[in-house]
Amino acid sequence: MQIQINADHHIENSVARDQWARSVVESALGHLADHVTRVEVHFSDENAGTGGTPDKRCAMEARLNGRAPIAVTNHAESLDAAVNGAAGKLSRAIEHELGRAHKHAHDARPTPADDDAEVPIR
Length: 122
Fold this sequence. Notes:
about 25% strand; alpha+beta
């Protein structure tokens, strides 16, 4: 599973921050690594320079084997909370998608009722 980290120009570039973000993503999605080929992480500070409450945003997009990408976004007052929240959301979204695909792939379809069979009237 490849992990790509991107940040807007309002967030200071840091190797330590990138390594930390990778470890958060690997921890949250490690059990899904067989299904995920790549995760892109995007950091931004939406209120940078406006003097308002700091609003950090973390968007994550996961590329799954043979499926459409899944994207989530989390807003928080700190980058730490934004990343952890987005990683949790992404993990749940991927598990949900894989569970749905597994369910639909293995459920037996009901066979149509025999036209000659009597149907009780209630």
